[in-house]
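Margin note: ligand = zinc ion.
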Amino acid sequence: MKIIINSNKYIRLLVSIHNLFGPEDSMAKKMLNESELFGKEFHLTAQIYTDIKTNIKKSGQNKFWTLFLDKNMPKTKQKYPNLIKKLNQLIKLNNKNKTSKEISNQIIKNFKKHETKINYLLNNIFLFNLPEEVNLIVDYDITTSFTGSSLSYDPVIISVQMPEYANKIMTISLHEILHSLINKNKTIPEDKYRFEEALLDYFAPRGIIDEKLNLINNFNIKERFEQIIFNRPYVKEEAQKLLPIIKNYYKVSEKTNIWKFLKKSGYKFINL
Ligand SMILES: [Zn+2]
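Resulting structure:
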């Protein structure tokens, strides 16, 4: 898997704007103070988000990030930097520095170290392979959260924050990669996003996958449930319903895939 690390200042500002105005429930509880970053320029961020959404519709796209990272879309790339540039003059973010280089190296090193095992687990549990390419947007200025943003499209785009948590980035990224693979394979209908969120939270971060990669000592499902509903109160119902099912799945996780198990447990909408 090729990892492309992106620390571009404009893209990082866009990540924060997307977190604030993006899909319903996209923001974990800890990220709510992200709005403080923009202070009195908050209105400009709303304007930028609305403009981007309008432009996405016009271009027949519905993927926010492809507008900025897809090399085949030069027109939109020309337009947006102007508004973002204006915001950037008002909100000073640091340029690439030594810390960002260290974080980037650490992320790539961690992935390389665990890649074989990750692929094995993804194959056995989800019937997926790791994508060929992942875009990681690394942010080291905004220190309100170490929860990855849900920017999961193809190519996979993940924003990660808080440099002191560089080691956790891999497993947070895995959560986002799984969203992307589910989206690409249409395994879970889009309107079941709360179910998808609760399900993935049981696997990574701090979940079953973390335990199998020896990143945590043991997986305690009750504890994980409490963490999930603390971070995302809106998935409580789904997480509660999944708790006994995941508890049983955990015992057979390398012998049977999760989709088969969920279908047997009554989740008929699983499409795999
Ligand atoms: Zn998620």
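The radius of gyration is 19 Å.
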